[in-house]
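Figure 3 (text version): structure tokens given as input.
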């Protein structure tokens, strides 16, 4: 079931055009933006207005949360009586921000701020959640303990705290188990019977409801902390979370927290976005708990000393870099374990290693899910104990699955998609077997294929500054409110690898509605060849946006995925796509100029000259021509089969819908390919003209200058009576043909070089080796001439697969005694003179005219 790099299945979200149109009209937004909102569950004008406004007045009353009355009453009594209160947090970013939030707020509300302290357990020595040693010590310092981001599963530990005379209030957002702890109050919107309407608050979000309930007058000033913890914990950015994060981001831009200012500075963030919180700030707080003392993160968020803030931020910045190194090390070790499995037989992954760093097993589990798309548990073993993190895929409730493995586990907790657990090492094989069996039973086969959900299909002319502005109003983006992802079918005009390791890809694309648009595909640098192969028609899934560089602002698509889109299955597509990049034999670079005497031409007709020589945009001139607009058959002529393929591919990519009506023909088509061509000739045909002598076209375009006058006469004879003959070449094409002339029609010196290069003391050389040697010389097109000349001289015998060398002649041979060599030299001389005339004013009057 598993494999590396599974290609995602694209799923277009259900479209409701009528509802989207209604929202677009009432909210004055573009239909595509309205459709995206419908996809996010916003189906009424009122909901849409609330979505855009993000008004804090719309968030639910904190006293709707079950247990809020009891929690507020007990905490206020502690404030009034000067009791010592300890905030018991968690070591991740959510737990650290929630701890800092309550400490700051409680110290403002309490009569004596010194009575408010906090405690975060050590990940390695104590593990997640409450533990008896910590509770015993804290019971001597405080009479009330308030948990944040933990506690809901600590039934026995909280009962133990009660026995010590320590009252406990639980604030948590993790999934409750069947038994709740005997706390004074439990604040968790997921607990049974809780009427609070929004169930997806982060731990810091639940803590925020508590300070609202306590009547903290300045609670909105702490929303920067709420935003950071909410985004870092990957809870859905919808409804209340969206409002909290939206206002928190604004607050963070002018925060009064010295710690947050230092974090922003060390991460080089000036105008924070949700992405910055999740990928820059959050990981540095998490690094505190992953590699050392998590209380450093809380100290950073609470400090009133600028020097301490900068020192702590720099320390966490360095630890995050160390975390990345550890992550890479453990990930590689885990991959080596996984690769020993038969992945196609696996419904899940459970991998373990002695001494794997506990602080990175969660991140490694996420990386393995990205790589193999299987539910994954990564386990670190030490001293007979196993500590693990688990990550799920869509379709599996991870927490419930672990509940059904509970008899093998020491402890566990978490969500539908992520969890932590511990167990004795001896239970690992049984746990692996049970976990994999449960996954196989609960995940349907189709859910093992990752999905890419597309919001809408658009054309590129819909991407505008106005659209970008409206899409910006949908932010902040993150889990539950992803950045809008739309799709379009495009042709890829150009690609370029960029980045320090060429690991990114710049694209220039077009569709039927626009000429060109820039795109960037991060981490797609290694797919350049594949994208170029399918360039004439690919689908891009992208986020519309802008690129600002050196004070220039341009529209840009950020590509998330791509996939080829097939056209008609025929020989043209096989050559343009399946066989690209081409490995062409030498004959494809050779003009048929040497065989012109075998061609019988029909009488030359009367036609109209159209002089477009020197046109910069040849494709545009052809595409905007009268013949193209009237959908007349068009013949585009070039000198060699290799040029035929190149020009055909260029036109099929650059001309709108070109893959539907542009094809090619040349003298080296197979019998089957020629049959396909004759059965369904394309509207636009690229050809050398050889083999078409009996046909005619109303519009013939000379993409290149003819190599010789005889070829020019042949091309002009393909124009029907009263048709047009268009010259589209310029100095660039003339220079290229002059260079090709030297390469493809070798003189004495060129033939001597080829002879020496191919000479083999063994008396023979394979044709494959001959091609390689001549190609490295840049004279591949000259090989057919060389083979024929040396055969005529009796120096070589050539069969299909090899060249056999004859005995050295007794006397020196004269190349001028060969018919072919003389013909080649004649063509070189005549073509050199002819090409000089191709750009002259009177060329069309006599340069293509048949002599009597």
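Below: residues designed for each position.
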């Amino acid at each position: 079931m598993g494999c590396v790099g599974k290609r995602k299945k694209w799923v277009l979200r259900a479209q409701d055009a009528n509802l989207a149109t209604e929202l677009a009209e009432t909210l004055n937004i573009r239909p595509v933006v309205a459709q995206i909102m419908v996809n996010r569950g916003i189906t009424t004008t009122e909901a849409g207005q609330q979505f855009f406004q993000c008004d804090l007045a719309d968030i639910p009353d904190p006293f709707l949360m079950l247990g809020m009355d009891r929690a507020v009453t007990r905490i206020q009594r502690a404030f009034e009586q000067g009791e010592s209160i300890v905030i018991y947090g968690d070591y991740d970013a959510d737990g650290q921000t929630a701890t800092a939030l309550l400490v700051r707020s409680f110290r403002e509300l309490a009569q004596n701020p010194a009575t408010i302290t906090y405690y975060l357990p050590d990940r390695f020595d104590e593990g997640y959640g409450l533990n008896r040693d910590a509770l015993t010590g804290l019971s001597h310092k405080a009479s009330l303990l308030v948990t944040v981001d933990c506690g809901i599963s600590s039934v026995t530990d909280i009962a133990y705290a009660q026995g010590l005379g320590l009252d406990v209030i639980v604030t948590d957002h993790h999934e409750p188990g069947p038994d709740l702890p005997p706390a004074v109050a439990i604040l968790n919107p997921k607990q049974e019977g809780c009427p609070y309407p929004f169930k997806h608050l982060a731990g810091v979000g639940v803590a925020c409801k508590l300070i609202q309930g306590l009547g903290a007058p300045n609670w909105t000033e702490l929303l920067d902390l709420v935003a950071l913890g909410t985004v870092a914990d990957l809870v859905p950015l919808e409804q209340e979370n969206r409002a909290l994060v939206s206002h928190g981001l604004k607050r963070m831009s002018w925060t009064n927290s010295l710690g947050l200012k230092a974090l922003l500075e060390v991460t080089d963030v000036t105008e924070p976005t949700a992405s910055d919180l999740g990928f820059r700030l959050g990981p540095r707080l998490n690094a505190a708990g992953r590699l050392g003392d998590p209380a450093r993160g809380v100290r950073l968020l609470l400090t009133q000393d600028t020097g301490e803030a900068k020192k702590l931020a720099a320390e966490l910045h360095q630890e995050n870099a160390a975390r990345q190194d550890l992550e890479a090390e453990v990930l590689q070790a885990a991959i080596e374990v996984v690769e020993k499995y038969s992945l196609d037989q696996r419904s899940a992954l459970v991998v373990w290693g002695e001494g794997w760093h506990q602080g990175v097993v969660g991140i490694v589990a996420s990386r393995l899910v990205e790589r193999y798309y299987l539910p994954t548990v990564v386990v670190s073993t030490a001293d007979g104990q196993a500590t693990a993190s688990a990550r799920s895929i869509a379709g599996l409730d991870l927490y419930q699955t672990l509940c059904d493995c509970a008899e093998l586990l020491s402890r566990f907790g978490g969500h539908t998609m992520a969890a932590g657990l511990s167990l004795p090492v001896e239970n690992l094989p049984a746990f692996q077997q049970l976990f994999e069996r449960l996954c196989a039973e609960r995940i349907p086969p189709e859910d093992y294929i990752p999905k890419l959900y597309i919001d809408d299909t658009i054309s590129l002319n819909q991407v505008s500054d106005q659209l970008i502005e409206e899409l910006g109003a949908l932010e902040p983006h993150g889990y539950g409110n992803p950045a809008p992802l739309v799709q379009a079918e495009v042709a890829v005009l150009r690609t370029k690898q960029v980045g320090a390791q060429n690991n990114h890809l710049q694209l220039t694309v077009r569709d039927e509605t626009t000429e060109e648009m820039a795109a960037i595909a991060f981490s797609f640098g290694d797919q350049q060849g594949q994208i170029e192969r399918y360039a004439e028609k690919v689908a891009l899934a992208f986020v519309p946006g802008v690129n600002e560089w050196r004070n220039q602002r341009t529209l840009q698509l950020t590509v998330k995925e791509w996939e080829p889109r097939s056209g008609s299955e025929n020989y043209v597509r096989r050559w343009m796509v399946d066989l690209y990049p081409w490995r062409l034999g030498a004959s494809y670079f050779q003009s048929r100029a040497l065989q012109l005497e075998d061609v019988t031409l029909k009488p030359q007709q009367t036609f109209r000259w159209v002089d477009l020589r020197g046109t910069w945009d040849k494709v545009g001139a052809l595409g905007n021509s009268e013949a193209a607009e009237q959908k007349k058959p068009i013949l585009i002529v070039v000198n060699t089969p290799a040029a035929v393929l190149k020009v055909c591919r260029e036109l099929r990519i650059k001309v709108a819908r070109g893959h539907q009506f542009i094809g090619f023909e040349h003298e080296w088509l197979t019998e089957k390919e020629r049959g396909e061509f004759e059965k369904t000739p394309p509207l636009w045909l690229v050809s050398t003209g050889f083999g078409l002598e009996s046909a005619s076209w109303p519009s013939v375009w000379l993409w290149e200058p003819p190599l010789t006058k005889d070829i020019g006469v042949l091309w002009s004879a393909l124009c029907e009576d009263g048709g047009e003959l268009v010259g589209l070449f310029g100095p660039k094409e003339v220079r290229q043909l002059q260079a090709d002339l030297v390469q493809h029609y070798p003189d004495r010196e060129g033939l001597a070089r080829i002879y020496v290069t191919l000479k083999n003391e063994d008396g023979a050389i394979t044709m494959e080796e001959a091609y390689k040697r001549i190609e490295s010389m840049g004279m591949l097109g000259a090989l057919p001439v060389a083979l024929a000349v040396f055969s005529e001289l009796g120096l070589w015998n050539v069969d299909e697969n090899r060249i056999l060398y004859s005995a050295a002649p007794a006397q020196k041979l004269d190349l001028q005694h060969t018919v072919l060599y003389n013909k080649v030299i004649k063509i070189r001389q005549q073509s050199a003179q002819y090409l000089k005339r191709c750009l002259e004013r009177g060329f069309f009057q006599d340069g293509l005219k048949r002599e009597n």
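The domain at 324-443 is CATH 3.10.310.30 (Diaminopimelate Epimerase; Chain A, domain 1).
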